């Protein structure tokens, strides 16, 4: 961790910077030598941000605090890349301001919004009033409700005055924790149920007759699913088909499936199962019924279960090297709040079988994220390149055909239509035959991979042991 040193330079003479100066002077013997600021020439400002290395030398600075929470992420990243870290340590003050009463900077001080800033994109705001009008007075069912995205979705929908919120998940501890965190809400019901259990789901749908279904339940861990393809298919494909068919049977108005950027040209089992889910949605949308089907493709959700940020947080807390699988690997990033908002917004603006993507900016190299985190928290931590994991792609895509991606009423949400035409009738017939084999376990893992490849996916081979 970075200890408050004897001679400190603060970047930013705004509210955060001045408050930080007062706190340092009141709580320690350290000396704040002055400020850097591009917008101010008041007394105490020693230069612009670009002057940092000269000021560090001329004023014998030990530690630089970057304290401009509202600044564009690109400026932060440029600054971190400019400063001479061999001569001085640096800490980035997060937007929470909680750091102003502490003598150290640690990884838990960084919110997902702060991390999004480090990767170079501002959070996308959505129309909350329109979402409230859409949800108000309706019964909403959420699968995977105990997961990171599902639970955030539950909390947001509760605030929109629904008639009822039905939380469905097989994860007992997760459902218990969710129920404890929102125990005061009388509109919420909790059910321990597996999406593969068609009879139990049918009972739940019949009891509540939901108006809206958000399907967030899925196995998502890429290397783990690569070594367990049969369970990946049973849960992500058969489970999704169950929820889709029951939505039609019970007259659900809107069904939204949480998909992934890994569904585009998938090379791994998880991505292939998600693409099959999209294709099932498109196939069922062609049948005459009441339900409108949509899907939403996400990039990496910063604080979701199993995310790279969780890995980095654990490594930083343990003072271990930050591990990156390849120096050039890139990913898109978004916050849990953005992801949950996008799910709701897609149900509002979507036509039947639309697939939505978010304007997520440019993809970010994971090694750059790791370096930015280390620079912000503990520059002494090294970064290790450990090699690609089973099923891992070098980069992710949000659309098969970028020229067919169109804007919606929300200028940060895009819709992609008519991707990769296929014979829906033949597809569903072949899929049901395949599911018959996986559900009865009349197939090996290698045979399951082969069947998926026969559906047009160029997959990496199955691995025989689980890898983190």
Briefly, what is this?
With 468 residues, the protein is α/β, with parallel strands linked by helices. Helices cover 39% and strands 17% of the residues.
Folded structure, characterized:
By secondary structure, the protein is an alpha/beta fold. It has 2 domains: 99 residues, NAD(P)-binding Rossmann-like Domain (Rossmann fold), CATH 3.40.50; 289 residues, Rossmann fold. Helix content is 39%, strand content 17%. A 9-stranded mixed β-sheet has the order 8-7-6-9-10-11-16-20-19, sandwiched between helices. Strand 1, helix 1 and strand 2 form a beta-alpha-beta unit. Helix 5 packs across helix 13, helix 8 packs parallel to helix 10 and helix 10 packs parallel to helix 11. The longest helix is centred in the middle third of the chain and has 21 residues. It is elongated and about 75 Å long. About 2% of the residues have low confidence.
Give the tags.
468 residues, alpha/beta, Rossmann fold, nine-stranded mixed beta sheet, five-stranded parallel beta sheet, 39% helix
Helices and strands in order:
Blueprint: E1 7-11, H1 15-27, E2 31-36, E3 45-47, H2 52-58, E4 63-66, H3 73-82, E5 89-92, H4 112-118, H5 128-135, E6 139-143, H6 148-158, E7 164-169, H7 172-181, E8 188-192, H8 198-208, E9 212-215, H9 222-226, H10 229-249, E10 254-258, H11 269-285, E11 292-297, E12 300-301, H12 308-317, E13 322-324, E14 330-331, E15 333-334, H13 336-349, E16 354-358, E17 364-365, H14 366-377, E18 383-385, E19 405-407, E20 413-416, H15 424-439, H16 445-454
Parallel strand pairs: 1-2, 1-4, 2-3, 4-5, 6-7, 6-9, 7-8, 9-10, 10-11, 11-16, 12-15, 13-18
Antiparallel strand pairs: 14-17, 16-20, 19-20
Helix pairs in contact: 5-13, 6-13, 8-10, 10-11, 11-15
């Amino acid at each position: 961790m970075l200890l408050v040193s004897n001679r400190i330079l603060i970047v930013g003479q705004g509210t955060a910077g001045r408050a930080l100066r007062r706190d340092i002077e009141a709580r320690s013997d350290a000396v704040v030598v002055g400020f850097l600021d591009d917008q101010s020439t008041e007394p105490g400002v020693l230069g612009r941000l670009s002057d940092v290395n000269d000021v560090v030398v001329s004023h014998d600075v030990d530690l630089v605090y970057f304290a401009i929470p509202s600044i564009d992420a690109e400026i932060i990243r440029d600054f971190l890349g400019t400063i001479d870290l061999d001569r001085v340590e640096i800490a980035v003050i997060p937007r929470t301001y909680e750091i102003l009463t502490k003598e150290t900077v640690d990884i838990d001080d960084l919110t997902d919004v702060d991390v999004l800033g480090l990767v170079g994109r501002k959070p996308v705001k959505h129309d909350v009033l329109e979402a409230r009008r859409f949800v108000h007075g309706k019964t909403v069912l959420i699968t995977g409700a105990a997961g990171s995205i599902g639970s955030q979705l539950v909390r947001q929908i509760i605030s929109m005055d629904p008639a009822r919120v039905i939380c469905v998940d097989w994860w007992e501890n997760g459902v218990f924790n969710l129920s404890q965190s929102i125990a005061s809400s009388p509109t919420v019901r909790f059910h321990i149920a597996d999406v593969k259990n068609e009879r139990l789901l049918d009972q739940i749908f019949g009891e509540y007759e939901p108006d809206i279904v958000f399907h967030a339940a899925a196995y998502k861990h890429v290397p783990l699913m690569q070594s367990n393809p049969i369970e990946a298919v049973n849960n992500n494909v058969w489970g999704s088909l169950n929820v889709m068919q029951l939505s039609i049977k019970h007259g659900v108005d809107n069904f939204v499936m949480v998909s992934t950027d890994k569904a585009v040209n998938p090379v791994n089992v998880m991505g292939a199962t998600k693409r099959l889910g999209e294709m099932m949605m498109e196939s069922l949308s062609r049948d005459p019924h009441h339900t409108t089907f949509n899907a939403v493709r996400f990039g990496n959700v910063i604080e979701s279960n199993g995310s790279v940020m969780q890995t980095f947080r654990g490594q930083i807390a343990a003072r271990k090297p930050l591990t990156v699988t390849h120096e050039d690997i890139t990913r898109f990033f978004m916050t849990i709040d953005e992801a949950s908002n996008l799910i709701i917004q897609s149900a509002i603006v979507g036509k039947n079988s639309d697939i939505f993507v978010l304007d997520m900016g440019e993809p970010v190299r994971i090694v750059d994220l790791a370096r930015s985190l280390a620079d912000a928290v503990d520059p002494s931590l090294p970064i290790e390149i450990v090699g690609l994991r089973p099923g891992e792609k070098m980069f992710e895509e949000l659309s098969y055909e970028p020229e067919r991606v169109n804007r919606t009423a929300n200028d940060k949400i895009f819709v992609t239509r008519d991707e990769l035409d296929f014979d829906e009738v033949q597809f569903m017939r072949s899929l049901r035959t395949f599911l018959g084999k996986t559900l009865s376990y009349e197939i090996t893992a290698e045979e399951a991979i082969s069947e998926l490849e026969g559906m047009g996916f160029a997959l990496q081979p199955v691995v025989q042991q689980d890898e983190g």
